[in-house]
Amino acid sequence: MNTFTLLLHNLAFSDASVLIPLIVLIFGYWLIQKTNLFSSSNKAKSSLDDDKYYTIDDKYNAEKVRKQKELDKLLEKISKKGIDGLSTNERKRLDELSK
Fold it and tell me: pTM higher than 0.70, yes or no?
């Protein structure tokens, strides 16, 4: 091998050792920007209403309040019309909510 070929050979390997990490860094940066991986708005969101709930606790509390309101409506209907005033579906739902 002559000196010029040896120089090119060494230069090619040194460029590859710099080029590959550079490509990985650029791709990683692009991926993070594209997916908003570290964005503060990337908190756990609810499937009920993504604009309204921000954390799992918010979702749990909202669901609990919703179920309590539904139960209150059923109990109010029972107080006005009696237990026989409930439909079959309402009775099943009352059973589910009272557990």
Answer: no
